[in-house]
Amino acid sequence: MRSERVAVAELLTPPWAQEECDHLRVSDSTPDPAALSDTCLACVESGQNPVALRLCLTCGHVGCCDSSEGKHATAHHELTNHPVIRSFEAGESWRWCYIDEVLT
Ligand SMILES: [Zn+2]
Ligand SMILES: [Zn+2]
Ligand SMILES: [Zn+2]
Fold it and tell me: How far is the CA of 56 from the centre of ligand 1 (A)?
């Protein structure tokens, strides 16, 4: 009887719960940092145009998305290993963990 109950509990765990990552959990329990800039400064320096902006939830760095020429948000993650970004676009509030590749 006991083993049947365990099997039922496993079936009741939704797939998204298994994909949750610790980085997003930490970011849930801490307030988002203030943005360090209102655009991608690396793009300003190199004369590129960001397509869309992403906010690093570890330090507040603002970088451009992977559709932009510079991909500076990803470059910031690779440099610092900061795991989670949030969309910095008006009306968008999704977050992405680079390490676990989880979108929430
Ligand atoms: Zn993660
Ligand atoms: Zn950029
Ligand atoms: Zn950062």
Answer: 13
